[in-house]
Specification:
single chain; alpha/beta; Rossmann fold; 3 domains; five-stranded mixed sheet; 17 helices; binds 5-phosphoarabinonic acid
């Protein structure tokens, strides 16, 4: 439980990659000088309540409330469904993939909670197929609708479908017993509906944006419902908090991670590939992709100048993507920084069986563990990339468990804040997402946006002259 997640960065140094592609000692010193004051500043910002996400791992009251609610629901909840999108969904998916077994939904004997689904899309075929299946099981199904703003069209539409279905089949009691709303403590449409219809609520704390909210009720409730040990998850985050608060650059993995990413962005490597060599960590790379993209992709800096900054995060999965992306990663443009996630001890292992008599060439694999093959493949990829002078970082997990996942989440949240500090941008807004949301409202007939609709139509109507 006291094991530390560690960041390994030798393979970005000039010693490994040469002075052209690697970071020299002088450059590291300059990065340290630039980053250290930011660590101090962030520690102060936090004391002044400017970064409330940093205090989430200490919120015991929410943990108690969530556990109580989960106890009340568990005995009659066989299916738990999250409706949400972006920051209201990706953390839940990541926790589930990391900490529940791959066969969770199918394995009735071993599952520690209800079946678990997250719908972060409004594809009617996908959602409709689920509704067909769940229709006669509604009584034992709990829907957790998560929306900070309460006005996201996708989540609102899913909720309205469920609302109608529950009201029709189970009456008003169905809404009260089978829906939990996770939303802003005071404001928003979802909060209003919940008050009106006596739907139970969990709060998303003020000032915590969607992509920084996985350690709040947004991610914790679904986790508890499915038997994830949230006390240990939060303990891991608290442990990482003390490490990433260290004002000594060379002892602070978030500072080093942010600085290396910042350096490479400024040296032509504007793509950040996260590549876990563990299926369990696959969706943490997806969670990171949103955190990084929405926080760091900005048109203006804090001084108001137009900068159009932002590394492009890409997720890949080892070993799967070795057979899909590695050709490009090695021989394509040298414009990427790679972050591997590596696990020392897997939750279980399998031994490779003997080679068939006619296949002596495969005998070298026999009796090896799959984990050893997986980690060898990671080292092989790292080596191959080094040969082509491609920089790589590795986040080392002793094991994938609630503690290390809590550490990972906190490490990358603070890395994101520090990277934003280096780029001198605001990590916590997403103004560009808003226009898309409003345009969708306009196209769906929201009269508040009639003017916008008039502007959209000529630009989006298909022009047959350009159709082949
Ligand atoms: O990180 C964010 O702020 C966004 O991704 C939001 O989580 C997403 O747009 C959903 O918003 P809401 O929770 O208000 O429905």
């Amino acid at each position: 439980m006291s094991q530390k997640l560690r960041l390994y960065y030798k393979n970005v140094t000039a010693g490994r990659l040469g002075a052209e592609q690697g970071i020299t000692q002088e450059q590291f010193k300059a990065l340290a000088q630039q980053t250290e004051p930011l660590i101090g500043q962030f520690n102060n910002d936090r004391k002044e309540g400017k970064t409330p996400y940093r205090d989430l791992p200490y919120d015991r009251k929410t943990v108690q409330q969530i556990k109580l609610l989960s106890e009340q629901l568990k005995s009659r909840c066989n299916i738990f469904v999250i409706l949400g999108i972006g920051g209201s969904a990706l953390g839940n998916i990541a926790l589930h993939t990391a900490l529940n077994s791959y066969m969770y939904n199918l394995d009735d004997a071993r599952r520690a909670g209800p079946r678990f689904f997250v719908f972060d899309n409004i594809d009617p075929v996908q959602f409709g197929s689920f509704l067909d299946w769940v229709g006669d099981k509604l009584k034992g199904t709990v829907f957790n609708v998560i929306s900070k703003s309460g006005r996201t069209a996708e989540t609102a539409s899913q909720f309205m479908i469920i609302h109608q279905m529950l009201a029709k089949r189970l009456g008003p009691k169905g809404l009260q017993e089978n829906v939990i709303a996770t939303t802003d403590p005071q404001q928003g449409i979802l909060r209003r509906i919940a008050r009106q219809e006596n739907i139970r609520c969990l709060d998303i704390p003020d000032g915590v944006g969607g992509r920084f909210s996985v350690l709040s009720s947004v991610g914790l409730f679904g986790a508890v419902m499915c038997g994830i040990d949230i006390d240990t998850l939060l303990a891991g985050a608290r442990d990482m908090d003390s490490t990433v608060s260290d004002t000594d650059f060379f002892k602070n993995p978030a500072a080093i991670n942010a600085a290396i990413n910042y350096h490479y962005y400024n040296h032509g490597k504007r793509i950040s590939v996260m590549m876990p060599y563990s299926y369990a960590l696959k969706d943490l790379a997806d969670w990171y992709r949103q955190l990084w993209a929405e926080s760091l992709g900005k048109a203006n800096n804090l001084a108001g100048s137009e900068v159009h900054i932002g590394p492009t995060p890409v997720k890949a999965l080892g070993v799967t993507d070795q057979h899909s992306q590695l050709q490009l990663y090695r021989e394509g443009p040298n414009d990427k920084l790679f972050t591997f996630l590596q696990v020392s001890e897997f939750a279980r292992d399998l031994t490779i069986g003997p080679a068939p008599d006619c296949a002596g060439e495969l005998a070298f694999l026999a009796n090896n563990n799959l984990s050893s093959l997986l980690n060898s493949e990671k080292l092989a990829t790292e080596y191959a990339l080094l040969q082509d002078k491609r920089p790589t970082l590795t986040v080392l997990f002793d094991q994938v468990d609630a503690y290390s996942v809590g550490q990972f989440i906190y490490l990358f949240e603070v890395t994101t804040s520090l990277a934003a500090g280096l780029f001198r941008i605001n990590a916590y807004d997403q103004p560009a997402v808003e226009l898309g949301k409003q345009a969708a409202f306009a196209l769906m007939g929201n009269s508040e946006y009639n003017k916008l609709k008039e502007q959209i139509q000529p630009l989006t109507e298909l022009d047959e002259a350009f159709m082949v």
